[in-house]
Specification:
Length: 477
């Protein structure tokens, strides 16, 4: 194992400063109206770092950051990396009480939103947008490399959840460094490529996109909420996309030729994939990969070309710098260079590993050759008439049907059997023939696994994230 996967900067160097020195005029970020070079982004980060240093922050202190402004979040991210402050973003949708509880749990020293940093950001934005920083070496002030601490706690990422106070997963920069390096063995990324930031930066998936692009010298395209995804692809040359099954369906339904627009790789997350959609994307010449990952492993664990087997879909091979094994009861256990340092609370980090060095994911899986297939969460399992049922198995069987593009299965109480599965689906035409769906499932599932009822997704349910909010559907049921 080397310290520098591929052509990355050394693990002890700030990757943004590295790119600003070696590729100063290369584009780091494209936004709604402007493009920002690595030199300009580097200048923004220094402005922010100097501004926050004036507040008396010390290394190891946590900055709870609440904003939907992706650019400001990226700037703060690298300011924290250079000063050893701990970057702690949270979902702006969290209720205030939940946010405050989380802030107390991590002992946040500063609670900030983008609006709390007006002087530093306004000044550096004006300079960046109206001055040229890279006309000569003097305009860069002869920047030198910046050493960072790869093993120190770099960020706290809140685990997903809509109720209760989420856990804070503590990553080091080293975790993200090796996560990006291993990712590129299956998902090449180079200077000149552009990855659309379609995931929020309080989510490890969004953070992973930033780290991959900066380490590789590639461009991040900020997602524009004012226009559709199809329009973004038509106006910007996006080479890499992170999508879920429903987003891919909508693009293909609109007749979008992804390959013709420049898309070369699609990373399909969310745990499910439709064989018909995968086939259509491949026919266009796009490399479509399924993936399995989690916050505790700094995003991706497995990635690869999907294979549809045993009524489900594979999630790829184990990536470099990760290890994966199955316990006697087929629980997925993981470890490696990308495994987070632990859960952070009251100033201390509690390691994730058991005595044998493995983290217990709570996911069930099986090997399909060299690939892993995810069979569902242990805590999602329901017992119906004494039989164990994993909702994910039913969901994947539903996705095999030609008219269904998304499915969620939850448990409902039943007088005779204790619990029965109830399915919610999205269909191609917005229509549903429940009897036909249940009939088609008869050949794919055991009788006791066929849902008691199949319903259309209600309009009130949000489905814009990387994962379906199962708790929201459970409340509906």
């Amino acid at each position: 194992m080397t310290d520098t996967p591929f052509s990355f900067p050394a693990i002890h160097e700030c990757p943004l400063r590295y790119q600003a020195i070696h590729h100063p005029s290369a584009i780091a970020i494209t936004g709604e109206e402007n493009t920002i070079s690595f030199t300009q982004l580097d200048q923004m980060v220094e402005q922010c770092r100097l501004h926050l240093s004036g507040k008396g922050l010390n290394a190891g202190e946590r900055i709870l950051f609440v904003t939907e402004d992706a650019l400001k979040t990226v700037v703060l991210l690298f300011a924290c990396l250079r000063s050893q402050w701990i970057f702690s973003p949270v979902n702006p949708a969290f209720p205030v009480a939940q946010r405050e509880d989380y802030g107390k749990r991590i002992g946040a020293s500063l609670i900030a939103s983008g609006n709390d940093l007006p002087d530093a950001f306004d000044k550096c934005f004006d300079e960046c947008f109206y001055e040229c920083f890279y006309e000569s070496s003097e305009t860069l002030n002869n920047p030198v490399s910046i050493n960072i601490s790869p093993d120190a706690v770099f960020d706290l990422i809140a685990t997903s959840g809509t109720t209760g106070t989420p856990k804070a997963v503590a990553h080091s920069y080293k975790n993200h460094f090796y996560s990006a390096g291993g990712s590129m063995s299956e998902l090449p990324l180079n200077r000149g490529d552009t990855w659309l930031l379609s995931l929020p930066l309080f989510h490890v998936g969004g953070l992973a996109i930033i780290m991959r692009c900066v380490l590789a010298g590639a461009t991040v395209a900020l997602f524009q909420k004012k226009i559709s995804l199809a329009d973004m692809l038509a106006t910007q040359r996006i080479s890499h996309l992170s999508l879920v099954n429903t987003q891919l369906f909508r693009l293909l339904e609109q007749g979008v030729n992804l390959h013709a627009l420049g898309v070369r790789y699609i990373l399909l997350g969310g745990g499910v994939a439709s064989p018909a959609l995968v086939a259509k994307a491949r026919e266009q010449g796009v490399n479509l990969l399924t993936t399995y990952g989690m916050t505790e492993m700094a995003s991706q664990i497995c990635t690869g070309e999907p294979e549809f087997v045993h009524g489900g879909v594979t999630s790829g091979r184990v990536l470099p710098y990760r290890k994966l094994t199955l316990s006697e009861d087929n629980e997925i256990l993981v470890s490696g260079e990308t495994l987070a340092q632990g859960y952070f609370e009251s100033g201390e980090v509690t390691p994730l590993m058991d005595q044998s060095g493995w983290f217990h994911t709570g996911d069930k899986g099986e090997w399909c050759g060299e690939q892993i297939k995810i069979n569902g969460r242990i805590d999602n399992m329901m017992i119906s008439g004494g039989e164990n049922i994993h909702p994910e198995e039913i969901e994947q069987a539903l996705l095999m049907l030609p008219n269904i593009v998304q499915a969620v299965v939850v448990a409902v109480e039943h007088t005779e059997f204790g619990h029965r599965p109830l399915a919610y689906v999205q269909t191609v035409d917005g229509q549903l023939n429940e009897f036909e769906v249940k009939t088609l499932l008869t050949g794919a599932l055991a009788k006791f696994k066929i849902p008691e009822h199949v319903r259309l997704f209600p309009d009130t349910v949000s489905n814009s994230g990387i994962k379906v909010n199962r708790k929201e559907f459970q409340r509906l049921a």
